[in-house]
Amino acid sequence: MSKPTITKLFFGSLFTIVGGLFLAAVGFVLAFGGGTVSVSAGEVTNVEISSGSTPMLLVGAVGVVAIVVGAFGQLVAWLGAVINTARLDDKTWFILLLVLGLLSFGFVPMLVYVIAGPDGTLVTATPRSDPAPAAT
């Protein structure tokens, strides 16, 4: 996977997560405002499902699905970046992305990678040493 593809996937899934969080929050606010959810002392005390609550729950469910899809996209972008950096001669990016990603601290290194990291799919031209011309 090339770095431009990884970058598009990373930012696209990041925007999907943010949009999903927004939709989930809107769904909860609508459910709270419409009386579907009752909160007392910081805890949900009552949930009344009615025909008017269906759109609210649907908005919240779409938000949750968007968060899950975005998280999967982030995972695919991270895997693509790890595989891409494994091709490099210098393994610093590979080790950083792999270790920090496995320790669940991969967002910041991924953000730095998509902004300033190298692309392992670019072919670097190595100078060829042509043999000396044959004497005639």
Gist of the model:
By secondary structure, this protein is mainly α. It has one domain.
Question: Tags for this entry?
Answer:
mainly alpha; 62% helix; 136 residues; two-stranded antiparallel sheet
Order of helices and strands: HEEHHH
* Terminus-to-terminus distance: 49 Å
Backbone structural class: mainly alpha
Proportion of residues in β-strands: 5-15%
Put simply, the count of helices is 4
Mean pLDDT: 85
| Main sheet: strands, sense, barrel | 2 strands, antiparallel
Q: Helix content range of the residues, please? A: 55-70%
Shape: elongated
Low-pLDDT ranges: none
> What's the β-strand tally?
2
- Spatial arrangement of strands, main beta sheet: 1-2
The overall number of domains is 1
- Supply Rg: 24 Å
Commentary on this structure:
This protein is mainly alpha-helical and 136 residues long. The chain has one domain. Helix content is 62%, strand content 7%. It is built from 4 helices and 2 strands, in the order H-E-E-H-H-H. Strands 1-2 form a two-stranded antiparallel ribbon. Helix 3 runs antiparallel to helix 4. It starts with a helix and ends in a 20-residue tail after the last helix. The model has no long low-confidence stretch (mean pLDDT 85).
